[in-house]
TrEMBL record:
Keyword Oxidoreductase on entry: no
This protein's name: Alpha/beta hydrolase
Coiled coil: none
Keywords of this entry: Hydrolase, Membrane, Transmembrane, Transmembrane helix
InterPro entries the UniProt entry points to: AB_hydrolase_fold (IPR029058), FrsA_esterase (IPR050261), Hydrolase_4 (IPR022742)
Segments traversing the membrane: 275-296, 308-329, 341-359, 366-387, 393-416, 428-449, 455-478, 490-509
Domain Serine aminopeptidase S33 stretches: 69-173
Highest taxon above the source species: Bacteria
Pfam family, one: Hydrolase_4
Length: 510
């Protein structure tokens, strides 16, 4: 019998080794393809980093371009310059001088947001002043011909609409995923509204603002004359929502075409919809996690088993109790918008879940520290470097390090509970969906209990969902290899704290 079994065992090891090799080669190929495409999109451009006071700028110019209009590009809430790069690259290739910047409190801008976020004469006014300062610097750049346009996404759409109405220098405005109450029948001049097909409420708002200029107008119509007295247009980018609209070829074409009409230009050059290239790179990094995790020492502990009853109690009780308990607690202890509450929510939810699991006899097992630290390093350094260059700011300024540390106090217990409930990567998909859905429902309950203060949590939920999808897969590779849910939880907790700490805007009242 022993002789009959041995070949199968050797064959099994060989098949697994071959699968790991294929995964490694495929992951590496995807990463290289994504990087090659993303770097090729920058070819022929000069990209320069400058400062407007404390505001960091990135200037994109086509090599050898004649003097041309400037386009100041503004990101949305919790975004950064990198988030808007598809528009900056497309417009720079078209011959414009594209200037992207980090709003106060965002990205690498060391000055926190301030004022009252609910009042136009509060935070909104301060951000308008910042755009004014950036516009001053942009118009003084070599290659600027004195004409200027504003382009902004989401939160920035309201800021640029108000600034364009107040600043007579602004010749055109491109508002992406716009929500603003400042639009009138004639202001701002030469307004293009771009909305994703799956942004139903914003589409209605865009059409309403188009009808202010002409009650008979419909989506896709152009009202007035953008090359003359002024015009307005509202269009829908097909098959995209609030984030993917930033990588839509249709949206990029519309933005470039509108600016050409306003400024009397005929542009050429590529439309750099970089979303597909970014997806290739990130997919490659996820795929590489499996063969890289196989290099870690293999754990010999039996897979963790969490009975269904224990799982239900450890997820549903914290999901209900946490938002209710924190409703009566002042969680404003960090100089960031909403992240202080989220850190407290993670801590209470995670601690309750861990306690309930332990009380029901679930054993957590040992900590594989090498696996935990390797997972954290791969997420923060490996993934983080790619994200910071091509997607959004991920490498923090010094002022954000204490914020990351404070969020980790809540993020690590939460991810420990999550990893144990997921049985160290061995749970069925339906269990994983249940566990994550319970947490997201808990956040939704918190928002419902305090909409005024916690509304911005709804905007950050897509970031958390993306974290679960991407890093959940990577963490599962480490958990299964090491046999240590605690290693998976610690590593993922540190990555989550880092991601939230570099994403939420820094903020001080007043």
């Amino acid at each position: 019998m022993a002789r009959g079994i041995a070949p199968k065992r050797r064959n099994g090891i060989g098949m697994r080794g071959a699968a790991l090799l294929i995964a490694a080669l495929a992951g590496l190929a995807l990463c290289l393809a994504g990087i090659w495409q993303l770097e090729a999109a920058r070819a022929g451009l000069t990209i320069t980093r400058l400062q407007a006071g404390t505001t960091p700028l990135t200037v994109y110019r086509r090599d050898g371009a004649a003097a041309s209009p400037v386009v100041v590009i503004a990101h949305g809430f919790a975004g950064s310059r990198q988030f808007m790069e598809a528009y900056a690259l497309t417009l720079a290739h078209a011959g414009y001088v594209a200037v992207a910047f980090d709003f106060e409190g965002h990205g690498r801008n060391p000055t926190p947001m301030s004022g009252d976020v609910t009042r136009v004469d509060g935070t909104t006014s301060k951000l308008m002043s910042e755009i004014g300062r950036v516009t001053d610097v942009a118009l003084s750049l070599p290659g600027a011909d004195g004409r200027v346009a504003l382009l902004g996404h989401s939160m920035a759409s309201d800021i640029i609409v108000r600034q364009a109405s107040a600043d007579p220098r602004i010749g055109a405005t491109v508002a992406i995923s716009m929500f603003s109450e400042a639009v009138t029948a004639s202001a701002p001049r030469n307004l293009l509204i771009i909305t994703g097909e799956w942004e139903a409420s914003l589409r209605q708002d865009g059409l309403r603002n188009l009808k202010l200029a002409d009650p008979a107008a419909q989506e896709g119509d152009t009202v007035g004359d953008p090359a003359g007295a002024g015009g307005r247009r509202a269009v829908v980018a097909p098959g995209v929502e609030h984030v993917s609209v930033l990588y839509s070829s249709a949206a990029l074409h519309e933005a470039r075409g509108w600016l050409d009409r306003v400024f009397g230009r005929t542009s050429s050059g590529p439309v750099t919809a970089t979303g597909g290239s970014i997806a290739l790179l990130l997919t490659g990094l996820v795929l590489l996690a499996w063969p890289l995790a196989a290099l870690l020492p293999k754990g010999d502990a039996a897979p963790l088993v969490v009975p269904l009853r224990s799982l239900a109690i450890a997820t549903l009780v914290p999901a209900v109790v946490t938002p209710i308990a924190l409703r009566f607690v002042d969680t404003r202890f960090l100089p960031v918008l909403v992240a202080d509450y989220l850190a407290a929510h993670l801590l209470v939810y995670g601690a309750l879940s861990l306690a309930l699991l332990r009380l029901q006899g679930v054993r957590f097992g040992p900590i594989a520290w090498l696996g935990a630290l390797t997972l954290a390093a791969y997420g923060i350094v490996g993934f983080g470097t790619a994200l910071d260059r091509y997607v959004a700011s991920f490498m923090p300024i010094a002022a954000r390090l204490p914020i990351i540390a404070a969020i980790a106090v809540g993020a690590v217990p939460y991810m420990l509970a999550d990893s144990i409930a997921n049985q160290g990567g061995h749970a069925a998909l339906w269990r994983t969906l249940w566990i994550r859905a319970a947490f997201l429902a808990s956040l939704g309950g918190a928002v419902a209990l305090d909409v005024r203060r916690l509304f911005f949590l709804l905007i950050i939920i897509p970031v958390i969902v993306l974290f679960f999808i991407v890093f959940g897969v990577i963490g599962g590779c480490v958990g299964r290899r090491t046999g240590s849910p605690l290693a998976e939880g610690i590593g993922l907790g540190l990555i989550l704290a880092w991601a939230l700490g570099v994403t939420f805007p820094m903020f001080v009242a007043g």
